[in-house]
Design a protein that fits this description.
The protein is α/β, with parallel strands linked by helices. It is built from 12 helices and 8 strands. The chain has a 6-stranded parallel β-sheet, sandwiched between helices. It has a two-stranded antiparallel ribbon with strand order 4-5. Strand 2, helix 7 and strand 3 form a beta-alpha-beta unit. The protein starts with 15 loop residues before the first helix and ends with a helix. The N terminus and C terminus are likely disordered.
């Protein structure tokens, strides 16, 4: 009967842990962006006809924040990462099937159970403990080329480029590990990424998170912390997401966009007259995205990755 709790949505406001997660993500993003050359941004694509004159060129107090899964990239980044590890025989078919089932469940249910999140998170972190951050970064570079590069939504990429061309910074905001998110941001020529921060000492994972996964309210806290550090005016900033879980982040900015929105976000956006963009077609547009992929789904993917690294070490 405990599983029935997964079907009951639970609203949570920002907690001390989500604030800590947000601040850690902001600090990690700013550090990584200083070390990344973003001069290889792709040429802009043509904007939709009739679109308003936005973003405003030269507005240095504005920036853009993009959710990753199903907003910038088709599917969940951590799932593609898991596919790459499976190809390298880092874990068995049985473990891949278990992860795929978890993704399917959360896609259908659309909610997370906090207790289950805690169990999966602790399992993943216990296995990752002792591995080097550089190992994951190296693997992630290869997997981006194999599975992620061709899954970027051109329409969303064009929106991000428009902000870059206007002289604004563009950040990914995701519950995926910050290392994975940073690789994707760099490959797309973006400024940097806010992601879930796993504690490391001297480049080695300790098996702990800093705060909690960057999901829901924690994303809003990360954006708030980064804006304060960068001197941004949130009323002049933009945010883009496909999921109702990101309503706290979207509500922070003056220019919220619903991109490939799930049912709840589409309804919320229409009620508040937010801008909508849907780059899916036909059957894809009829499907709900992966509303929990940025939460438990991402952590479940992290578990698969952790199991893979554990088996590799053995």
């Amino acid at each position: 009967m405990a599983a029935l709790g997964w079907l009951t949505p639970r609203r949570r406001s920002a907690t001390a842990r989500s604030v800590l997660a947000g601040e850690a993500a902001a600090e990690a993003a700013r550090k990584a962006s200083r070390e990344t050359d973003t001069t290889e941004a792709r040429a802009p694509e043509k904007e939709e006809s009739g679109a308003p004159d936005f973003p405003v060129a030269g507005d240095r107090h504005a920036a853009a924040f993009f959710d990753l899964d199903n907003t910038v990239m088709q599917g969940a980044a951590i799932f593609h990462f898991g596919r790459g590890l499976y190809k390298r025989k880092f874990f068995q078919r049985r473990e891949l099937a278990r992860f795929a089932w978890q993704q399917t469940w959360f896609r259908l249910a659309g909610v997370e159970d906090p207790d289950h999140m805690q169990d999966v998170r602790e399992s993943a972190l216990s296995i990752v403990k002792g591995h080097r951050v550089s190992e994951l970064m190296s693997i992630g570079e290869e997997i981006y080329d194999e599975y992620m590069a061709d899954r970027i939504w051109p329409g969303t990429r064009a929106l991000a480029q428009a902000h870059l061309d206007a002289g604004q910074k563009v950040w990914l905001v995701t519950a995926a590990p910050v290392e994975t998110a940073t690789i994707i941001a760099r490959r797309l020529g973006l400024t940097g990424a806010l992601g879930t921060v796993a504690e490391s000492v001297d480049g080695v994972y300790t098996g702990k998170l800093v705060g909690e996964p960057l999901h829901g309210p924690a994303k809003a806290e990360a954006v708030r912390a980064l804006a304060a550090a960068e001197g941004l005016d949130l009323s002049r900033c933009a945010a883009y997401s496909d999921s109702h879980n990101d309503i706290p982040m979207l509500s922070l900015v003056g220019h919220p966009y619903a991109i490939n929105p799930d049912t709840k976000l589409r309804k919320h956006a229409r009620e508040r007259e937010w801008r909508l963009r849907d780059y899916r077609t036909g059957r894809k547009a009829a499907k709900v995205g992966i509303p929990a992929a940025a939460g438990v789904g991402a952590i479940a993917g992290g578990t698969a990755a952790a199991v893979a690294l554990h088996r590799r070490r053995r």
